[in-house]
Write a structure and sequence with these properties.
Length: 726
């Protein structure tokens, strides 16, 4: 690979994070030669999205990672007047990793084996289905049932309402089902819907009928109807089953979760987008949005009076909410309108500009409920934030409402790690060169500028500018004292606020003050299967906050409130969890040792959106190329005209002939200007004769046309006469 790479590039980028990918796409789009390297086997660096098995491998790789000294002897690759600065060979931004399955290794209820044992044969009577009772444990598993064979069971549900025909044979790759009764319901449904329990006996006798044919079942049904017993209609049965299945919970085992590993897309740094933001504008203007798909975060949640509740954000939500009185609805709409118009009326909050935002809300005499909604769910700020900062976040939220539905946020399907890959794709389309599993061992410095890099393959590549991701930056270029971020990824069996719909939910939880007197809010992002990040009957929960100790300890208070514990088993259960601590590279301060043409990009922080990464990338672009447009929209492929080499040669030859003719004509005109008056007169006579001949030709053409018309007219009249005679 090293021998195939060119020896000179305009820009070399190390790391495929979001800001690095945006810069690479901008340079490539404007015609610069770009080389993009990444030491990993995947794109997006610290912004990546993984499947479940890949995420577990990623966690193990960090646990076994050790510091290794980079090479310092580069031989003839470095000149005498140049110095070398080594680049870290491995990323050291992740620590305190802990993964755990909170369910049993295998399913405790082997219904698929029971179904296989009771598969009816075309010549044998239909056997009676066993009435199996399901009772959930605290950890989400069911009661133990002995296994019939050594096959791995599939996941089951805590309800007999599930038809056996839905049970799949995953190990054999075929679907096996038992059609008990097409027009009747199961035992537990009959007990619940039929009077006096008679329906249960009917279903039982139908299941155990000797022939098991449809005619016998219909005869049995007719006898029941003649006896005067009333049974529920098909619509009533469907409604009952729908209500029953809406509350059922699937029993997952570790083996079941591992089988579905391909259906997971788990973000290391989950992010959402404000509908009206610099990130969305850039996606549209650069046409990168065509590489991604998005879905709205349709539900904002909050803890109010000890309960989890939905926040009314839009006008429709405010007036349809039952948690807010009529007076509070008017108060909230009036306050939101005033905040949206605060730029035109700065006196609205001028006196509280430097004071805490919570004091400003109290001065407006808002009710406790409205105060809570505005501060914790719309502005999403703590008590320590100033009024000026709180108003900025308020207006940002309000401006984003209504652009893509009654919500302010968007989430990229398949995870936020798709966005860096989309910008990498744009860079590659315009000629960027990409190499994974390859990095730079050192930067070659001359007169406080990086003139080249030495790759891990031992090749020296000249460059004009260098972009470094945070994990590729030498320690002497930045200040190493920085904070950390506690992150948690949880797989749960249902939503934290369960209802009939599956919605993307955002919760900004502000717990009590810690021991140091500060508040550390926890952002909770819940993603259902419709966001393409997990299989059905499961949800993904992302938790993020500023770290003060270990990730699991920092997030423990929020986890205890939201999920199942010994006191309350009605909440969702945790199936699998991952906790880790990540260094916060969102704000990087450089030292004087950094070369002038080396630019260091930030990493993901605790903020919800990606605007800070976009702003940093734009700032670097304006420094390097101040007079060029940042990521202009690429041309439409249908408008591009492709010309091969042969057509180019023909065009060039034709152009040469035309230029020769023009030169001859100009020379003739110059010669004509030196002629005598008689000669000029003769020339004019020749021109007149030529014009006369051309006019005669036109008149002849006109006469020919008229003749043709006349001939056609005569022919048409003769035809009419013949028709009349006939």
């Amino acid at each position: 690979m090293a021998a195939d790479l060119p020896t000179e590039f305009d820009l070399i980028v190390l790391g495929t994070g979001l800001p690095e990918s945006i810069i690479a796409a901008a340079f490539s789009r404007n015609g610069y030669k770009v080389l993009h390297l990444d030491r990993n086997t995947y794109y997006s660096s610290s912004w990546a999205s993984f499947s479940l098995s890949t995420l577990e491998e990623w966690a193990k790789s960090y646990e076994s990672r050790t510091d290794s000294k980079p090479d310092s002897d580069f031989g003839d690759l470095v000149k005498e007047c140049e110095t070398v600065v080594s680049i870290p060979t491995q990323a050291q931004d992740i620590s305190s990793i802990k993964t755990q399955y909170h369910v049993r290794e295998t399913s405790s209820l082997v219904l698929e084996n029971v179904a296989q044992e009771h598969i009816p044969d075309s010549t044998s009577p239909a056997p009676e289905m066993p009435n199996i009772q399901h009772k959930p444990d605290v950890d989400g598993a069911g009661d133990s049932v002995p296994k019939k064979d050594e096959q791995e069971p599939s996941s089951q549900k805590i309800s007999n309402a599930e038809s056996p025909e839905n049970i799949q044979k995953e190990n054999s790759g075929t679907k096996q089902g038992i059609d008990v009764c097409d027009n009747n319901v199961k035992d537990d449904q009959c007990d619940a819907t039929s009077p006096d329990g008679v329906g249960g006996d009917v279903c039982k006798s139908t299941d155990s009928s000797v022939g098991g044919t449809t005619e016998e079942k219909c005869e049995q049904t007719a006898q029941n109807e003649s006896s005067g017993v009333t049974y529920p209609s098909e619509e009533q049965r469907a409604e009952t089953q729908e209500k029953h299945t809406s509350n059922e919970r699937k029993i997952w085992s570790a083996s079941d979760i591992k089988k579905e590993w391909r259906k997971f897309n788990l973000d290391l740094a989950p992010k959402i987008l404000y509908s009206t933001s610099k990130t969305v504008d850039l996606l549209i203007s650069s046409d990168v949005a065509k590489y991604c798909e998005f879905r709205t975060v349709s539900r904002v949640l909050t803890f109010l009076n000890g309960q989890l509740d939905k926040v009314p954000c839009s006008r429709a939500d405010v007036f349809s909410s039952k948690k807010v009185s009529v007076l509070e609805k008017r108060m909230l709409m009036k306050f939101l309108t005033s905040c949206a118009q605060s730029d035109e009326h700065p006196e609205f909050y001028e006196d509280f500009k430097e004071k805490p935002f919570c004091e400003f809300l109290k001065a407006k005499k808002l009710t406790p409920n409205i105060h809570h909604f505005v501060q914790h769910s719309i502005a999403m700020v703590t008590d320590e934030v100033s009024t000026e900062e709180g108003m900025k976040k308020m207006k940002r939220f309000l401006v984003s409402l209504g652009r893509y539905g009654n919500t302010a946020f968007l989430f990229p399907l398949y995870g936020s790690g798709e966005l860096p890959q989309a910008f990498c794709r744009l860079c590659a389309v315009f000629g960027g060169t990409y190499c994974l599993q390859m990095s730079a061992s050192a930067l070659v410095i001359h007169e406080n500028r990086c003139c080249a890099v030495i790759t891990t393959e031992g090749q020296r590549i000249e460059c004009k500018h260098v972009i470094l991701g945070p994990t590729y930056t030498p320690k002497e270029f930045i200040h190493t004292d920085r904070s950390s971020i506690s992150r948690g990824i949880l797989l749960t069996d249902k939503s934290i606020l369960h209802d009939d719909t599956t919605e993307l939910s955002l919760l900004y939880s502000i717990p009590q003050k810690s021991d140091d007197g500060h508040q550390y809010p926890v952002s909770v992002l819940e993603l259902p299967p419709s966001s393409m990040v997990c299989p059905r009957d499961m949800n993904v929960i992302h938790l993020t906050r500023q770290a003060t100790s270990g990730a699991e300890a920092d997030l423990a208070s929020t986890v205890d409130v939201l999920f199942t514990n010994e006191e309350d088993t009605s909440k969702p259960s945790i199936l699998w969890s991952l906790y880790f601590t990540q260094k916060d590279f969102s704000n990087i301060e450089t030292t004087e040792k950094k070369p002038d043409n080396v630019y260091i990009m930030p990493g993901p922080g605790t903020e919800l959106d990606m605007d800070s990464a976009v702003e940093q990338a734009r700032r670097v672009w304006e420094t390097v190329c101040p007079e060029e447009e940042f990521l202009p929209k690429p041309p439409n492929p249908e408008d591009i005209i492709y010309v091969d080499n042969e057509e180019t040669k023909v065009g060039e030859e034709g152009t040469g002939c035309l230029e020769t003719d023009v030169e001859i004509a100009e020379q003739n005109v110059a010669n004509t200007s030196t002629e005598t008056g008689d000669e000029q007169k003769s020339v004019e006579e020749v021109k007149q004769s030529c014009s006369v001949s051309s006019s005669e030709d036109k008149s002849q053409d006109t006469q020919f046309g008229s003749l043709d018309e006349k001939e056609n007219k005569d022919t048409s009249e003769s035809d009419l006469q013949k028709n009349d005679e006939k």
